[in-house]
From TrEMBL, chain B:
Transmembrane region(s): 45-67, 79-101, 129-152, 164-189, 196-218, 254-273
One Pfam entry name: ABC2_membrane_4
Superkingdom of origin: Bacteria
Record carries keyword Repressor: no
Keyword set includes Membrane: yes
Keywords: Membrane, Transmembrane, Transmembrane helix
Annotated protein name in UniProt: ABC transporter permease
Organism (species): Streptomyces omiyaensis
Amino acid sequence: MIEAVGLTKRYGAKTAVYNLSFQVRPGVVTGFLGPNGSGKSTTMRMILGLDQPTAGRVTIGGHPFRQLPNAPRQVGALLDAKAVHGGRSARNHLLSLAQLAGIPARRVDEVLGVVGLQDVARRRSKGFSLGMGQRLGIAAALLGDPQVLLFDEPVNGLDPEGILWVRNLMKKLASEGRTVFVSSHLMSEMALTADHLIVIGRGQLLSDMPVKQFISANSADFARVRTPEGEAAQRDKLSGVLVEAGGQVLPEPDGALRVTGLPLPRISDLAHGADVRLWELSPHQASLEEAYMRLTQGAVDYRSTDDKLAHLQAPPQPGQPGYGLPPQPQPPLPADVPQQGWYAPPPPGENPYAAPQPPAPAPQPPAAAPQPSPPRPSIQKPSDTTEDAR
Amino acid sequence: MTAPTPTPVPPPPYGYVSPIPVRRAHLGDALASEWTKIRSVRATMWTLGTMILLMLGIGLSVAAIAAGEGGGMSEESALPLGFFGMLPASICVITLGVLTISSEYGTGMIRTTLTACPSRSRVLTAKAIVFFLLVFTVTLVVAFVVATAQVAMVDAAEPTGAEWARATVGAAGFMAVLGLLSMAVGALVRHSAGAITVMIGVLLLPLVAALFMFAPALKGLQEVLFTYSVPSQMIALYSAQPPFGEGGPAGWEALFILTGIAAVALGGAYALLNSRDV
């Protein structure tokens, strides 16, 4: 059990972590998410007593880390795969760590086998690949057979076999009743591994809840309904019926309708009742990635911009044909495609897409609906189930 | 942003208990660990190997030259000749002392170490003890071999027991304490090249600066630098009388002065290591 209360860390004027309080419970894998620079690593370092919090405290099993009588036997950590002396062999590296905690040398060979490094145990770790370094770091974390485990980006650089192995390892460790706290940027991996999520942005807690709840609270589950093409009257008729029945309907650029607030069988029944044929009726559940993007949208510090290569191009020379491009008409931008990289997330309470909402108070005509967010651009893949559904 | 929702059911309050018995970690564990660390990197072999070669090579060459010239040393013993090998050898000890701790900062190993042993003082104490004993033992053996050879080769006065003790145990202690000072500087600076540069400066700069102090106004400062620079202290270690004018250190005093400086530096290293973020 890891418990943080009001954890705050300032570096000069910059506040890396502010008033962070959370609990990591035993028996489940807890994912730790946040954009780059959101304070994940700082938090992990404070848990491990490497950094002193400016305010607040964090304890492991009720004790501050630096007061544990034998830390490696209670807490194992993988912070940075390359935090080893490259000139030392893998076995000697682990042996020196084992000796620090009075762990017998047999255990070193045991964990080398567990992570699959037994064949390179005598080689200097300088020549290790990133994935081998990760395995060595995981071996160091497992060395003391601890009750609490922290992993910072454990699957970085691992091959697919290694990723699968880490995923199963985390689950196994948690099922044995250990506390497993994992940070990662790989959302698909987190969705498969973690049971519970702690999300921070700009050093503050954004969310602390089970994965399932996190996805449904931060994303839009919807049904896509498509009426026969070229029969606009049918489409309007159907959307009228759906809105009347309490659903919310949003037209998509390609003519489909996005319906929220009504279960799929009910939509089918309503269409049947209105005598409208359907070409498509498909459920769309958002992915963890989408939910995460929506939640952390406002807390991203480092955002990429387009690389225009402006300084590398020859300046246009208008008077000389043959050099530079002739003036070209700018293609008109489609009006319904938002120019922003991602849409602004509506607050969950006002999200018109959110499925488990109480019936909407008043039916709204789709065209006049005051949408807090513009429709999703069609180029974006709304979810990982979209392709399958078509 | 998201409305805080109560977590449904807290998991049962069971925890994992390791089948391997847990006991408290102590300084002995840290000593074993540091011994594994220092013997498993090549830097140790290279620096100590170079040190042994320098002490043997220079010590024996100087003895051979002195033996060839013959006489002139009849009222002194041959043991002070050991100084000539000590000076270059001390650069090797400085390098190893700095690397013992700064290589952990350079590679990031320090975070792994301090995660495995949150008691930072214990880590530094273990490093200091292991390093001191290693350098002391190696230097003692080599200094004894060199001193025996020098006494045998050079026709000079028979050294007394006190002179033997200073030339072997004293020299070994001086080197090991100089190494501890380097280790403390390494812990303070946390950067290998920076700390080694600082220590070589401390070793050589006062003497070099004093050589060029021609102005009469600087006469006093020049004398102090000549008397108390590290190489002068090494020379003083071998002689019973102050070799550079009155009031300077002689014999064991040189070792005590260096020990005092190293103790202050180590105190600073303990304080900063315990208070700084890693």
